[in-house]
Design brief:
Length: about 325
């Protein structure tokens, strides 16, 4: 896609106006808004199954990335949202949020044009919930009738100070073995930095049930290897160890979507990887993929996170 200031183009069955395409969003490498949009347009067919029917939180960088650049998390649909973009009202502890749901390629490109570099989604789907007065109500500590159900569990591995992707890869292999023992098919995804998320598809269940499962996993890993895994959120105690963040399974939380870009110094992507790649990690710069590398990987391997899309996922162990 050529870098021009503004163009009108056809994306799927929609006509979009794309603006300020020559704006540099990643100054360290001169990566432009046109290149961001081009990546999202090309990755959309593979990314969409992982975000479709899920409310989306966006991290926007209207002036590009950098310590001195303005960025913000956005949950509510912005002013000027086209009427063809799906919106879902969700009742949360912060009130009713008017979320965007990206269900098709034009919606992804529209978000990319807003410099929504990062796209985050929860583990539950809209379609699993019962809407009351056109609103989804998220559960708190107690179950709620019609609450949305999670169809995947995530183990978010957060390395403390002094740790790198090398230790995160080792932790991911250990976690994957645990999930496999419980009948699940684990999928690993780089965070775009030094962390890794391990996902697995599950039969639809309460978010609190998925949260409890990973919390128990957190405790058992710490008990088995206290010098490597830490069970507390205390930043000081996490130095030199891996924290298993179970809170990302709560209904009110979300994680970076597969194939989303990251708002870091360089244009990295949250990338599904193979277990062979994790086992081969040797240095802190391994498993960092730029957009063009991710597109090449998809051409060669297809969607490495495809097992998350199964229609026959197993229940969590305590639900069997």
């Amino acid at each position: 896609m050529a870098a021009a200031r503004d163009i009108t183009t056809r994306v799927g069955h929609r006509t979009l106006t794309l603006t300020n395409l020559d704006k540099v969003l990643y100054p360290s490498v001169g990566f432009t808004k046109a290149e961001v949009i081009d990546y999202y347009a090309r990755i959309a067919p593979v990314m969409l199954p992982h975000i479709r029917d899920r409310v989306m939180t966006r991290l926007r960088f209207p002036d590009g990335v950098g310590a001195d650049r303005f960025s913000f998390y956005e949950k509510n649909a912005p002013m000027g949202t086209p009427d063809w973009v799906r919106r879902v009202n969700v009742n949360t502890s912060d009130g009713i949020i008017d979320y965007v749901v990206a269900d098709d390629e034009p919606a992804i490109v529209w978000l990319a044009n807003l410099a929504a570099l990062e796209m985050h989604v929860p583990q539950w789907t809209v379609g699993s919930a019962k809407l009351v007065d056109n609103i989804i109500s998220l559960p708190e500590l107690r179950p709620r009738s019609g609450e949305p159900l999670a169809d995947r569990v995530v183990v978010d591995l957060d390395p403390g100070a002094g740790m790198t992707i090398v230790e995160s890869a080792r932790a991911a292999l250990i976690v994957a073995a645990k999930l496999a023992e419980d009948g699940m098919i684990p999928i690993a995804q780089t965070s775009g930095s030094k962390g890794i998320q391990v996902y697995a598809a599950i039969a639809p269940t309460r978010s609190k049930t998925a949260w409890s499962y990973v919390k128990q996993l957190n405790a058992s890993l710490h008990k088995a290897q206290p010098d490597f895994f830490v069970s507390t959120m205390s930043v000081d105690q996490r130095a030199g160890r891996i924290y298993v963040d179970y809170n990302q399974n709560l209904a009110a939380r979300n994680t970076i979507a597969p194939y989303s870009m990251r708002g870091r110094e360089r244009p990295a992507v949250a990338t599904p990887v193979t277990w062979e790649e994790l086992g081969s990690v040797r240095g802190p710069d391994d498993l960092r993929f730029a957009p063009d590398e991710v597109l090449a990987r998809v051409d060669e391997f297809g969607d490495l996170a495809r097992d998350l899309l199964t229609s026959d996922a197993p229940p969590l162990p305590d639900e069997g």
